[in-house]
Structure formats: C-alpha cells, structure tokens
Amino acid sequence: MESLIISLQTLDPLLIYLLLFSMAFLENIFPPSPSDMVIVMGGALVGIGRVGFAESLLCATAGSVAGFMVMYKIGDWFGDHILEQGKIGFIRVETVHKVEEWFRKHGYWVIVVNRFLTGTRAVVSFFAGMSEMNFPLTILLCAVSALVWNAILVTSGYLLGQNWQQIEGVLGTYSWVVTGLVVLVVIVLVARYFLKKKKTEGEVP
Prior knowledge:
Shape: elongated
Mean pLDDT: 75
C-alpha cells in the first residue's frame, strides 16, 4: 500500500481524480474492489497538497452514484428474469416477491445507509431496481449517503496524512464485521428455507 501511494503522488491530479471515480464506480459492480482504501489514500494526497479536497470528494461520490445507477438499472431490466424465472434454484419466486414488497416499504431507509454497508452495496442497488423504487428519490438518497461516507474517508486520509495506514485495519475490521453479519443472515434464511421445504415434503402423504 505504501508503495502505491508513493506512485500515486507522481500522477497528474486529473488521473488521480479519474482513479477515485473509477474505483468508487467499480466497487458497486465488483464489491471486493478496495475502493474505500483508495479513497482514504486520496485523502492522504489531499493532506500533502497533491489534489483538492472538494474535487476528490466529488469524484468519489460521482463514481459511487454512477455505479449504483448501473446496478439499479440491471436490477430493473433483468432482475425479474434472473430471480423470478427460477434461475437460482434455492430462491423461491414467493421469496423474491416478499423481498420486493419489503424493499418498496423500507428500501429508502436501506438506501440511506447503503454506503455504510460495505460488501452489500451491489445487492442493495440491484434489489432497489428490481423493486422499481422511485428512481430520482433513490438516486438522491444514494448521493447523500455516498457523499457522507466518502467525506468520512477523505477526511480520515487527510487528517492522518502520512499515517493513513492506521485506518486500513479499522476499515478491514469494519468490513469483516458487516460482511459476516450479512452472510449470517443469508445462511439463516437459506437454512430456514430448506427446513421448511423438508417439513413440507415430510407432510405429503
């Protein structure tokens, strides 16, 4: 990581802004991408005067929103075909409909905290599109969420300066905890489905 930030210091500021946008964008499509750490490094570059704070924040936020919009549209256009047509065997159509209904009722709150749910952002945007949530409102809430989260990351990198690596462990722990909780919920739901299915089959004469 240290060698990476040294290399970034040699880049033209426009390329650094493009990198911040691209990583924030790709993180919505390929969740394992280390966009948060790259944005923290961008904050460190702000601290040494290599790039501007506002420009870095806006580029990262624009990338986050653009990536969210792409996944929203994928969910809107192809979600029904992927999930409701039985393409994923262990997910019942009834379950998909329940998730859609839940998103229509509570999804806007999920969008607000979306950026803080590391590792789940692509899933949230996909189901938001599949549930056909109000697009302008959804994008507005996504932008607010992304702006706040990215401001925290850029500010952290800026304040830590050359010691920006200290936040790597914090973000890593945070990511593992959130991802672990999400995986646990998924396991519980899948186990509940199979147990219910087994019970139903056992009741059939």
